[in-house]
Design a protein that fits this description.
It is built from seven helices and ten strands. It is an alpha+beta fold and 205 residues long. It folds into two domains: 2-89 and 173-203, no CATH class; 98-159, DNA Binding (I), subunit A. The structure holds zinc ion.
């Protein structure tokens, strides 16, 4: 059963946003250190959280959940954990890409504030390239084609167009890039967290 320790576990941040995937081995390590809690899904959309001790003592797990056996005991393998502290999970460098910029800006043109489809969006250099602007998270924003054309090669002050939000590198990977990494056939309990229009999560006391 040792392979079970390589099962994928979904990692949520303190805001219950999916931010990464790790092995069950790593998840148990974080749990043991108190850096994470297990998310147990029991009834429809009802979630409970457990620390290491309460999880290990849990007898009635959900049907079909993986179990791991140790020398003297067994316990349910977590399928989702939620971090209890910030910054305890090594951040992967988020790839600077067109799609990840769209994700960071939520497909909202940073000049007119409207949301667009990918094909109607461009990347805009806030400080134009020929004025020394870098192609980086801090100088690239999502822009609709119309605003992009209107701004042209002008500085924000010249065009009187400034991005709604100061562009920065995202701390957490955008959901789409996470979804791409998740293997098919992920555990049923992940669905609520990986599907964009998932209904709201209810925490049990
Ligand atoms: Zn626009």
């Amino acid at each position: 059963m040792s392979n079970s320790f390589d099962n994928q576990v979904l990692v949520l941040n303190r805001l219950w946003q999916p931010v990464n995937v790790c092995t069950a081995r790593r998840a148990i390590g974080l749990l043991f250190l108190g850096h994470a809690q297990v998310v147990g899904t029991f009834e429809d959309n009802l979630f409970s959280t457990h620390n290491f001790e309460s999880w290990a003592r849990l007898e009635d797990g959900p049907e079909g959940w993986p179990v791991v056996h140790t020398v003297s005991d067994w316990f349910w393998l977590p399928t989702i954990i939620v971090l209890t502290v910030f910054d305890r999970f090594p951040r992967k460098e988020i790839k600077f890409s067109r799609e990840n910029v769209f994700q960071r800006d939520d497909h909202v043109c940073q000049y007119c504030g409207k949301r667009f489809e990918n094909r109607e969006l461009n990347l805009d250099h806030v400080i134009p390239r020929d004025k020394g602007g870098a192609t980086s998270w801090e100088n690239i924003v999502c822009s609709c084609i119309r605003c992009n054309t209107k701004k042209g090669n002008k500085l924000p002050s010249e065009a009187r167009m400034a991005p709604m939000k100061k562009p920065v590198a995202p701390h957490w990977r955008p959901l789409v890039s996470l979804q791409r990494e998740v293997h098919k056939g992920y555990h049923e309990s992940w669905r609520l967290f990986l599907e964009p229009n998932a209904s709201s999560v209810t925490l049990s006391a």
